[in-house]
Amino acid sequence: MQWVGIHPLRKTLTIVQFTLGIMANILIAEDNKEFADLLMRYLLSAGHTVRVVNEGVRVMEEVHRQSPDIILLDFLIPAGRGSEIIKRLKGHRDTVRIPIVIISALNEAKARDQGYEGGAYIYLTKPFALQDLLGYIEEAVDSSSVTMS
After folding, report:
1. Per-residue pLDDT of the chain (149 residues; tens, 9 = 90+)
2. Hey, how many other C-beta atoms are within 10 angstroms of the C-beta on 112?
3. This prediction's pTM
């Protein structure tokens, strides 16, 4: 991306190149509307494309409608347990490489183990820093694009 402007001191035309990092197509699967809205606004402001579903059964529908670069999955989402959703995603050749970031209020070793054993990229316990989430998204999308090529 470029920004073009007049340098205030030199009164000359200045072109500044900058990158916004990796822009991702993100699917958020979260039943808490306020939290989903917060995530969506934050990620949109960072330049990402975001879609939200509030039930586990809708995750697969959305993934097949338009494949996301990454999924942010509430492990306790209604109408579909997080571990089952991960298993279905990682068991299908079209979705196996989509990174999954688990977002959960569960801070139990058993839940973490289920997430990682299923193939989750990272397991974040609520509350967490939104800036950290952005870093994980960029890492996960970058590493998945490298493994796909």
Report:
1. 334 344 444 444 444 333 456 789 999 999 999 999 999 999 999 999 999 999 998 999 999 999 999 999 999 998 778 889 999 999 999 999 999 999 999 999 999 999 999 999 999 999 999 999 999 999 999 887 655 44
2. 17
3. 0.82
